[in-house]
Every structure is written in C-alpha cells, then in structure tokens.
Write a structure and sequence with these properties.
Chain lengths: 486, 95
C-alpha cells in the first residue's frame, strides 16, 4: 500500500481493494516501526486517525465519499489542530493544545482525509535543515547522515520513507521546495494568498504559504483542489475562483517557453545538480518546449532582503509568546518583566532568538529606513524581475537548491545556512508559485528541479511537472530505508 | 553598519528577551555577520522605488462592522499557564 500514490490509493479505496481502516493501520504500523530512526513525527494521533478512517469507510458504504475520503495524511506541526498538541517545533508550545482547527485542516477533514499526526519541523519554521527543532533533528531517509531539509523536513522525510502518502508543509523562504528536493518528493508552494493562513502559526506573514508535499504532481493537484480558496478569516487570502487543478494535468507542452535564469547557474552550484537540471530541461525540449536564457538581475539581493523582512515580521509575530495566555511560562516570576523575559528566554531556541533580535534591531529607531524600508524597495525590484521574465517565457526552471542534502551538523555558521535558500527565497518575496520535482541523484542523494510560474499559475506548474513525471521515473525511486526499516 | 554589544542589549530589552552576558557576545558575532550580509542592499539603486509590503500589492480588506464571533473564554483559557475566575494571573503590577 505504501508504494502507491494518493491518486492510486484513492482509486483502490473506491474499488474496495482495501478499507480506509486497513490503509490507516498500515501507515500507523510503519510509523511505529521506522520513526524511532527518522524522528519525522512530533505527535502521532493513532486513535483519532482510526476513528476518522471508520467514518470515511461508513461514508463510502453510504455512497457519500469524496475523491480523497479515507486517505491518510500528515500535517506539519505548524497547523493548529483542535484538541491536538501543536508545538511548531518549539519548547515554547510544547504544552499547547490548539483550541481550533486551521482552515487547511478544516478543509482536509471536510474532504474526508485522515490526519495521522503532526510532523517535525524547524522551530517556528526557521531553518533550512530541520536541525533547529526542540524535538531533535529529522534524518533523511535516503541517507541517515544527511539532513532532510527544512523547515518542513519532517513532512518531506515521512513521505519519502513511505510513512504517509502525502503531507502538508509551509514555505516562507523555500521550506516546502528545498526539503522536497532533498528527500526526492514533489512539493508545491502556491501563490501567496491562494491558501488560507488562518490557524497556521505565523513566522513572516507576508511570505508564509501552505502547500502540499507528495510523491507526484498529480497528487499535489488533488490536494491543492481541497485546500485552495478564499477564507474570510484570513484577510490576506485572495478572493478568486479555484480551478480544478487535475483537469489540465495532461495538456501537451508543445510551444511551452521555458526560461533559464542565468543567475541560477553560476558560482556555488554543485556541478552534478547543474547536470541533472540541464538533463531535465532536455526532456522538456523533447516534449516540444523551447528554452532560452533569461536574467533576474536582483537575485543576489534576495537573501539580504529576506533576512531583513522575515526577521522583522517574526519579531512582531513572536511577541505574542509572553507566558501569559498560552505557551511556556517560567517558574516563580519576580514581576511582569521577569515573567516575559525569562519565559521567552527559556521557551525559544537559539535561531529563533537570533531572528527576533535581528528583526527588533532593524525595526528600531535609527535603523528602520536603512534596513526595513530599503529591503521592501529591493523586494519590489525582485518581484519586477520575475514579472519582466514572464513577459517572454511561460515558466522558469532551475535548481531548487545549490547542493543535494548536506550532512547533519555540517553548517555551523548561520549565514552559510541561509545561503542554501538562494534559489527559493526570491519566490516568496515576489509571492509567485513554485514547485520542486525529483530530477536525479548525486552521491545517492536526490536533486530537485524547481519550476516557477507567474502569480496564480499553479495549474500550469502542475501540468508542466506532471508531464515531466510522465516522461521520467525519478519520482518513482524509493530509498532503501523505506523497505528495510518498515 | 557595525553592531555593538549595546545594540544587542537594546534589541533584547525591546523584545523582552533575557540574554546573559555570554549569550550577548555570541549574538554580537552572529548578528554582525548577518548584518554584513544584509548591508549588500545598500549598493542597490532604489531611487523612486515604492516599498512592497504585500507581494500582490493588495490592500487590507475591510469587513462589515458586525459581531461574528461567540465568547469562547473558557475554551481559550484552557491552554493558559495560570487563570482564576476567568482572569489571566500575572505577578502583581500595582501595589
């Protein structure tokens, strides 16, 4: 069962090949056997999952089951889930039982899908390796000495290891696409505002976006159909119709114009990653696409702009963790200031503190214009680069990450870690959608091809990714760990 | 812009974050490296460029001024560290 995609599992449930209870039990057993090694889950909700499976089976028997009813999924532990611990990978929220469901969770439940639990992540989604979690690092199922990528590393590792057929992640600077690339799965970051952020614990509000992580673009299309759409509870969600993302998956690619940003193929790019990406582009040429070089001249400034804007927004969002209404509280506070400062010092990890401090500093009197206003101006130039490029081409292609997954503990310096997101981060600043699909291996570690489109071009991205997956089998490869340890 | 110990202490104070002396020196090093990287922004010509706060250039929507939520105080206070009679308990602030 665990070798099937969501699409195949949905067909098998529909035909009665097995029940949702049998399917759910199978994945729960795999989690129990393998996750002691991977550490991809923070919380497993076995009993609740089996109850939901029974409800889905009953609905199917009564003829009321939707397309994805009875399919098990997992949720990054950043999505609030009613009655279930929601930690965001932090000691600060280790005791937090969410009193409501995020809109994404509500929509997935209404579609009859089953949550197996909450996946591990970098604390408050701050990281590119999943080594910043209070609950320990996640290991990459392709190579247990490697990171799975961050911050949705738990979701990516769990899908790659066959512990769950698909999972939800969030992407603020590449946190769906980079772990998808490192773990050899498919991950989609939709356009900013396409999916509601209500009930998703905020990191950087103008950048955060939820999206699906699965084995194929087709699976991502099915999941996006469920989670996309306007939400009156999120004033940044976009009031715009949602197409059926599965309808256009098989549209032919003849005439597709692909742009290769020259800035994505320069210094720092691993030669094997470049080779794999260029081979993938040749596949597209064989499918009738044309390729040309384009330029995104402000690419070099995306990481500096992000590391002003994201920490600034984070320092504001994380001010709510004060030890008063929820979250960690220090023992025996002497006064109110002691309560705030010690609760926050004890509850937050090092990377979170670093970003709160940098954000607070850049927003403070005397520094605001030099840093924050300047970064927001550069952000507009970065977005304009993309809009100009999409005047000439339909999609952009390049690597999702400059290297395959690196070793656990290999990057001690924060700036060197930040540079890992060089090809993903500008996408969030511009708000456009992006998808990473498996496109090869280097030293046994997966490589991701990143495909970018203009705002609300998710259907086109999924079509372009799906056609690649019809022509290649990179997305069908499985790590040996998936069979040896479960 | 060089970062000094006083900047880190000021930011920690503004952020209500307790930072020990040892931690402060480590943060000065880390934050200095980050700000060195961020300072590359100063070389970009942004004359006449309007800052972009929302990636879709959208403005905040307004909704009708109507009560839409019900009182869920008990529900929300279940996850509070200390409550009494519907109030959040904190150390005494008025003598």
């Amino acid at each position: 069962m665990h070798d099937k995609t969501v699409t195949q599992l949905a067909a098998a449930l529909k035909s009665g090949e097995f029940s949702s209870r049998e399917l759910t039990s199978h994945f729960l057993q795999r989690i129990e056997q393998a996750d002691g090694t991977l550490n991809s889950f923070i919380t497993v909700t076995a009993e609740q999952a089996l109850n939901q499976a029974d409800v889905a089976d009953q609905a199917r028997a009564a003829g009321n089951a939707g397309a994805l009813a009875g399919i098990p999924l997992a949720l990054k532990d950043i999505f609030c889930t009613h009655g279930v611990k929601t930690t965001c990978g932090s000691k600060m929220l280790d005791n937090f039982i969410a009193p409501y469901d995020a809109t994404v969770v509500e929509k997935l439940s209404a579609a009859g899908t089953i949550s197996l639990g909450k996946t591990n992540m970098d604390e408050f989604a701050m990281g590119s390796s999943n080594e910043n979690s209070y609950f320990g690092a996640v290991k990459n199922p392709w190579d247990l000495s490697a990171v799975p990528g961050g911050s949705s590393g738990g979701s990516a590792a769990a899908v790659a290891a066959g512990l769950v057929p698909a999972a939800m992640g969030t992407d603020t600077g590449g946190s769906i696409r980079q772990p998808a690339a490192f773990c050899g799965i498919t991950g989609l970051k939709p356009t900013y505002g396409r999916v509601s952020r209500y009930g998703i614990i905020a990191y950087a509000s103008s950048l955060d976006q939820a999206g699906p992580m699965a084995r194929s673009a087709e699976d991502c299309a099915h999941l996006l159909n469920v989670i996309a759409g306007h939400d009156v509870r999120d004033s940044t969600s976009v009031a715009r119709g949602v197409p059926d993302y599965t309808e256009t998956l098989n549209a032919p690619l003849s005439g597709l114009k692909i742009g290769l940003p020259k800035e994505y193929f320069g210094d720092g790019l691993d030669p094997e990653v470049e080779k794999a990406v260029r081979e993938a582009v040749k596949v597209y040429e064989s499918l009738g696409a044309t390729v040309r070089e384009v330029s995104l001249p402000h690419t070099h400034y995306a990481i500096p702009a992000y590391y002003v804007i994201a920490p600034a927004e984070a320092s504001s969002n994380l001010s709510r963790y004060d030890g008063v209404r929820f979250g960690h509280r220090c023992d025996a506070p002497a006064d109110l200031i002691d309560l705030y400062t010690r609760s926050r010092a004890e509850g937050f990890g090092e990377e979170v503190k670093r970003r709160i401090l940098i954000g607070t500093h850049t927003l403070s009197e005397g520094f605001f214009d030099a840093y924050y206003t300047k970064a927001q101006k550069v952000r507009r130039l970065i977005r304009q680069d993309f809009l100009d490029a999409f005047e000439d081409v339909d999609v952009l292609m390049g690597p999702a990450s400059p290297t395959p997954a690196f070793d656990l503990g290999a990057k001690k310096d924060p700036v060197s870690m930040y540079l890992q997101d060089i090809y993903t981060i500008a996408v969030n600043l511009a708000g456009i959608p992006g998808i990473s699909v498996p496109a090869g291996f280097a030293g046994g570690r997966p490589i991701g091809l990143q495909i970018l489109g203009t705002h609300f071009a998710e259907a086109q991205l999924l079509n372009v990714a799906h056609q690649f997956q019809q022509a290649t089998d990179w997305h069908l490869k499985r790590p040996a760990f998936a069979e040896e340890n479960a | 812009m060089a970062l000094e110990d006083s900047h880190v202490r000021r930011a920690a104070h503004l952020a209500r974050l307790a930072v020990s002396d040892d931690q402060a020196s480590g943060f000065v090093d880390d934050l200095s490296r980050i700000l060195d990287m961020v300072d590359q922004l100063q070389s970009v010509d942004t004359e006449g460029v309007v800052p972009l706060a929302h990636p879709l250039d959208a403005t905040q929507r307004l909704r009708a001024d109507e009560v839409t939520e019900t009182n869920q105080r008990d529900n929300f206070q279940r996850c509070a560290p200390a409550v009494e009679e519907g109030l959040y308990l904190v150390p005494r602030v008025v003598e």
